[in-house]
Amino acid sequence: MSDIQRYITQEGWTDTATWLIILREDFDTVQTALADLDAWGENSKRYADMFLTIRHETVHFWHAISTAFLYSYSCNYVQFCIEAINSIRQGGKSYGDIPYTEFQGNFRELTELLLSPSAPIRTIDVIEGCAVLCSYRMNLSSASHQGFLHHLNQHHSGQQEYRSAYLRATEILGEDAFDLFAPACYLALQGDNPGRNLESIFLCARDGLHSFPDTFITEDPLSYLLEVTSMPEEGCFPSVIRKQMPQGYFSHPILQPYIEKIAQTSHLRLADIFARPYIYKDKAHPSKEIGDFLLEISPPLNLYSGRAGVLMGLGQKLGKDYGIIIHHLTTLVSLVDRLVFDIRQEMICPHQQCPVYKTNLCQRYLAFPLDDYRKCKFSELLNGLRLGNLLNAKL
User: What pLDDT, on a 0 to 100 scale, did the predictor assign at position 8?
Assistant: First the structure.
């Protein structure tokens, strides 16, 4: 479950329940790279890889607020975690009861959604494949189909989830896959079975290639795909949000401010912006309004090496309390990993002499003190949630 819930790359990962992004690089390095994009010198590869990772994780977040599948997945994951915590609290369970197997069914259903169908394209392949292409094209203004195939072979040769969907698109669409792939993935993620949806979209796209001008296909691939699949653009999640927000159908504790922002943004073609963000990040397509919008909907909280937590966009406007909500919810989601599946993740806290450290209950509690573990507030957090009994057993 944990490996699927968190889209792990070599240099960072995103928690798909709370959307905290943890990056291996330190914040000062990012700032140095941003200060002069034309003078990277001997650090060029390191900086390029760093921004590739940041953009990859950013695309995941943008899809969480703009596609029905990922938004629903994230809401369900948070809800299952809350239900498990409430049941554990009310049942007075202790540390010795781990794992709490009675809660595993709901989480396994979510994992099965990501791994279905078994062939030819799984849902996880759609999610990851799209993020890989989008981040690649955001990084390289001179990107090409052949260049991307080389990138997949060089960087992701053994990773099915990053490669298989695009290779399938290439089998069906040839070089047209380069422009059609990301919008096709975006449309596939609007439904409840993105893997199956994507294969169908590819086939419809192939059948229509000779019925429309090449310029239409390459310049407005989303409209082309909507045309050949007979899908209305109003069915994309941003339009659904604008229609249903007044009824209060959206309630994710972290994503809610972003959903509200989308509901208020009716003058931009958001479906196309989210379907191929690399176009709007390209200097050849300048738009201050769209650029400002994308900055505002940056992922809310990035945590860099050295524990530098940076609130961005709407997260920065919402301030410290919003950041605390993200942190505490991330702690609880990881606590559920430990309690329900007995998953022990890499500990970020350095205090191995702390009696709680060896339990891994605090494995994503990031507010640990640097000097003395006895100043840590993790136990207070558990007691405040009436989960202190987890620490009462002889550890």
Answer: 45
Buried b (16+ CB within 10 A) or exposed e, 287-323: eeebeebbebbbbbbbbbbeeebbbbbbbbeeeeebb
The C-alpha atoms of residue 38 and residue 395 are separated, in whole angstroms, by: 54
Assign 261 a pLDDT band (cuts: 50, 70, 90). very high
How confident is the model over 327-358, as pLDDT tens digits?
A: 999 999 999 999 999 999 888 899 999 999 99
pLDDT for res 389? 83
Burial class (CB in 10 A: 0-12, 13-18, 19+), 366: middle
Q: What are phi and psi of 304, to 5 degrees?
A: -100, 165
Structure tokens belonging to residue 335 = 């606590």
Reply yes or no: is the peptide bond before residue 117 cis, omega within 30 of 0.
Answer: yes
Q: Are 236 and 190 in contact (CB under 8 A)?
A: yes
Local confidence band at 81 (pLDDT 50, 70, 90 cut-offs): very high
Contacts of 131 (CB under 8 A, 6+ apart): 7, 56, 57, 59, 60, 63
- pLDDT tens digits, 124-182: 999 999 999 999 999 998 899 999 999 999 999 888 899 999 999 999 999 999 999 99
Q: Is the pTM of this model over 0.85?
A: yes
